[in-house]
Amino acid sequence: EGEYLQCVTHIPSGRALNCFLALIESVNKAGKGKLDIWDELLRLNQQDIPSGLPSFDLGLFEGAWGYDGTMGKISGIREGHWNLQTYLIGMISSYVEQYKRVIETLDPNEELSQCILSGGLPRRIPIILMWLTKILKRSVILSRFEEETLVGLATLSLKKECADKSLDSLICSVHENMR
Question: What is the pTM of this model?
């Protein structure tokens, strides 16, 4: 159709974060604790962001963007600066920084004024949207649909069959049928 889409796929997200969160959850369970890791993530805010955070390599899986064969690691752990809060903030910081690197790759001249996030994590953890807006220095909004990829693929598959309909009406139609 003469149109091109520049994209980066397989950016580590929920699956990678769950690997690192499993450590905290297993320690909590072993200690008979009552910690809800998702509640802790929801409590994070921009005032909590210290300097010198640990860095998490989220490229845990072959095929993931940034995968280098080392299968994940945590670096930058400092004595006296290693606790649940720095662990969680460092993990989220690493998650956000990978998107910054993707945007720098796709938009090196900073021509885009807005980015659209999809998926469950930015909806579940508000600091992700706030932090991305701050570091990307542009508007960052959530997509209308949580599963943007599925809606997009379904819409593209219908585009040729329904050439008389606008893309927006196709998207809304697909979204309604996915409920």
Answer: 0.77
